[in-house]
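Entry 12.
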Amino acid sequence: MKKIKTRVGLIISDKMNKTRIVLYKKKITHKKYGKIIFKNKKYFAHDEKNLTKRGNYVKIISIRPLSKKKAWLIKKIIK
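Predicted 3D structure (tokens):
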């Protein structure tokens, strides 16, 4: 069994039908210099009933691929 991955991110686009683009920010420390760096990644997430809007924070989970880029599901609206 694969482990289900979860992420919390911000919806930056809601223009597509049943699909949202979620921006996930990750804070890491540089190995050599110790500086804190932010890395960004965009995930295409499935929203069956189009409940979420741009600016919402959501929790997404990994699922089987639904299309070429979409393999995440919006599980919960945080705020």
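Annotation: The first strand starts at residue 6 and ends at 13. DSSP finds no helices and five strands in the chain.
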